[in-house]
Amino acid sequence: MRNKEVAEKFYELAEVAELAGENPFKVKAYLEAARVIENLTIPIEDLAKEDKLDGIKGVGKSIAEKIKEYLETGKITKLEELKKVVPEGLLELEKVKGLGAKRVKILYEKLGIKNLEDLEKAAKEHKIRDLEGFGEKTEQKILEGIKSLRDKRTDRFLIGIALPIAESIVNLLSKNTPIEKHMICGSLRRMKDTIGDIDILVTSKNPSFVMDYFVQIPFVKEVLAKGDTKSSIITQEGIQVDLRVVENDSFGAAIQYFTGSKNHNVRLREIAIKKNLKLNEYGVFRLDDNAIIAGVKETDVYEALDLDWIPPEMREDTGEIELAMQHKLPTIVDYKDIKGDLHMHTKYSDGANTIEEMARKAISLGYEYIVVTEHAKALGVAHGLSIEEFKKEKEEINRLNRKFYPFKIFLGVELNILSDGSIDFDEKDLDIFDLCLAGIHTGMNQSESAITERIKKVLQIPKVKIIVHPTGRIINGRSEYSVNIDEIFREAKKYNKIFEINASFERLDLSDVNARKAVYEYGLKIAIGTDAHSTESMNNMRFGVGVARRAWLRKEDIINTKSLKEFEEFLREV
DNA sequence: GCCGTTTTCGGCCCGACTGTTTTCAGTCG
C-alpha cells in the first residue's frame, strides 16, 4: 500500500508548484488529488495496474500519468523540474506565520532569501520593510514568526488530553456565566485522534460577562486576544482555546462552520452556489434577495442544501456528502451501543485495580459484560501469567459471576505474538479461555515481511480470535511497525478473525483509515477494547467509538455491541 | 489540472483580519 507515499509526493508537488508561480487552480488540483489518495482505502498500485486511476475523483489524465510515473520510476519529472527552479529552503519559509507563497517568492526574487537564516538576517538588517507591500510591522511579525516557529512544539495534542480540558471549561462557563447553548467544535467534535486547538461556541445575552470570566479561569496561562465575540487563551498545558459567542439565530450555522473539516465545508459551499444559495457561518442565504433560510439548527443547514444531516465524525469529504445527497448515509454506531469492554488488565498482571473493581465500573457504565485479558507469561515486564495463575483467576471470576449476576465476566488473555510467529502457550492449553487476543509487544523492528508473516501465522491458530493494537503505533511516540496490512486483512478474512480498535487514546489502533478499510474493503469485524489498566481508563471507550464512527462503522460491524446473550453465542462459535 | 442534474469551456469557497494602502492583496482558518 503506497497511498500515503504517493499522497506525500503530490503535497510536495503542490507546494513547489505554488512557489514556482504555477496557476493556482493547478496547485489546488494537486492538493485535492493528494488528499483523495491519502484517504483511499484501496491500494493505489492496484488501481494503477488495472488502469483505473482516472476513476478516482480529482484524478484526471495528467495526474494519473504522474502517479504511474512515480510508481514505476520513483520520480515525477514535473516535480524534479520545478525543484530546479525552487530552492529547498523556501518550503520552510512558508511555515513562518504571515508568509505565504506570494511573499516568499518576492523575498527570494528581490533579496535572494533562500532559508530561515537568510530571512532572519534580512529582517534584522531592516531590508524587508522597504519592499513593496511589506512594511515595518510585517518585518517585526516575521521576526516573531521565526522565533515561535523555532520554539514551537510540533506535536498536536492527544484527544484524550484535550477533550477533558474542553469539557471542564464548558462546565465552568455553564456554572458561572449566563450562557444558553454551547458546543465543543473543531477536530474535537469530529473525534480526530489529535487536535491543534480547542474551539468552543456559546450563545449568551451577556457576551462581555462571559468573556471577562473566560480569560481569568484558573488554568489560563496567557491571554492571546479578548474581544466581544471572540477570545483566545493558552492553558497551562499549552493548548490554545478559542471561545466564540454567536447569536442564537446563527448557532446552527456557526457550529457547522466551526466543526469543519475545511474540505467538507468547501464542498458544502460549492453545493450551495449551485442551488443559488450562499453558506457562511451566519446561515444559509438566498442569493436573489439575501433572505436567510437556515441557521438556528445545524440539521436545517444540511436540509437547506438537500442533504441528510451528517455526523461530525464523518465530515472529512471522503464520500459522505455524496451519500447524504442520495439519502444513503450508513447509520453509524452510537456511543451507547457498546455493551461490553473486551480488553483490560487487573492486579493479576499489570493493572491497578481488582477484577471486582473493574466489574463494578463496567456496571456503572451500563455494560452487560467484560472480558478480563491479562498478559500471558512471555511478557515478563507486565507480570505475564502462567496457565496455573490463569486457572486461579478463573476461580475468582466464577465467584464474582455469582455475585454480579446477570452481569458477566469472561476469562480472556492477551497473548504475545513472539518474534517467530508462535505464542506463549500450547494450543491445547487455550481451552480454559473464553476469548483469546493476540498482539505484538516485542520485536517491532523486524522487516515488513517478517512481521507480516508472524501475524499471518497466528491468524491460523483457531482459538485466537482478535488481533489487538494491530499496527503498534503510539501517537506522538512510536510509528507503526512495518506491516503489509492489506495482506493481513486478506488472510484474516479466510479465518474469520477480528481486529481491535484499541481505545487507549495514545494508541487508537486500528486508525480510522485502517478500520474503514478492514470493514468496507475486506468485510472484517471489529472489536473495541480500552486496554484499561485501571477503572479510570475504562472511560476511554468513547475514543475508540469515535474512531469507529470516523471509519463509518455500523453497530453490526462491532462485536461488543452484541447483547450478553448474543455475545455468548458468538463465543461458543469461537 | 479537474469537472459538468444548467456547462466539454469557463469556472474553481467564504469571511475576517492585517498591514499596507487610499481601495486592496495576502494570509489564515
Question: Any overview of this molecule?
Answer:
Residues 1-316 form the DNA-directed DNA polymerase X domain. The strands form four sheets. The protein has a seven-stranded parallel beta sheet, with helices on one face. Strands 2-4-7-6-5 form a five-stranded mixed beta sheet, sandwiched between helices. The chain has helices at residues 3-19, 24-39, 44-49, 61-73, 77-85, 90-93, 101-111, 116-124, 136-151, 159-176, 186-189, 207-214, 251-259, 262-274, 298-304, 320-325, 355-364, 387-404, 448-459, 485-495, 512-520, 541-550, 564-573, and strands at 157-158, 179-184, 194-195, 198-204, 220-226, 230-235, 240-245, 277-280, 283-286, 292-294, 340-341, 369-375, 408-416, 435-439, 464-467, 498-502, 525-529. The chain has four domains: 3-151, DNA polymerase beta, N-terminal domain-like (DNA polymerase, domain 1, Orthogonal Bundle); 157-245, 2-Layer Sandwich (Beta Polymerase, domain 2); 250-325, Beta Polymerase, domain 3; 335-573, Metal-dependent hydrolases (TIM Barrel, Alpha-Beta Barrel). Helix content is 43%, strand content 15%. The longest helix is centred in the N-terminal third of the chain and has 18 residues, at 159-176. The chain has 574 residues and is α/β, with parallel strands linked by helices. The mean pLDDT is 93.
